[in-house]
Design a protein that fits this description.
alpha/beta, six-stranded mixed sheet, Rossmann fold, four-stranded antiparallel sheet, 10 helices
Length: 259
Amino acid sequence: MSKSIEVNDLNVYYSDFLAVEGVSIDIKPNTVTAFIGPSGCGKSTFLRTLNRMHEVIPGARVEGEVLIDGKNLYGTGVDPVLVRRQVGMVFQRPNPFPTMSIKENVLAGVKLNNTRMAKSDQDALVEKSLRGANLWNEVKDRLDRPGSGLSGGQQQRLCIARAIAVSPDVILMDEPCSALDPISTFAIEELIAEIKTQYTVVIVTHNMQQASRVSDKTAFFNIAGTGKPGKLIEYDDTRTMFTTPSVQATEDYVSGRFG
């Protein structure tokens, strides 16, 4: 079930350094939202606060709220492991577990959650997840071979299948195509368009054409200078952001006149 995301006045710190300041944003269910902006503006940091992945870095903390369907991820007693099951993540470089087969990779998250399943249910979930990631027909005859033997684009789709398998509400993607060739990139973009019917998708990308192709809404982040926090500058329908943005810095960035 796709869910809404509501962020209220979020500040992200690494020890004493304020990395992202004062972000408020509403993301609707069954949409693709692209985060764009120059390197170091905090967009990936902010993305990771949406499933508490930033907490793996010592000294990381937040102020403010992140609500998924009205429930605060940072509320008292909320288990970050459960948050990460609800909000899946696909990283910049494909990262299938190298010692595991394709099938084991898909089931890895489910097994981490101590979910006991009959073999027939496992097989059904593997097929459903790989079909959901548009990978089933390419790998169905070699499910017991290592996931690391796939091409880069296939590995990234395997990681998406792994994320889908635990039935999340939201899928985050941190530059999922930056390590891929154009054909693999196209396959991932097609997949994003398909999975938004079931999930809320948030993607960080440096590729302006990709943001304009895949997203319904775009958020532009920027940074005021060295040592300054990243801020959300503008957030609107993607078409508006790329044709008639209301902030000059957004127009400069999307038109390539930035910097």
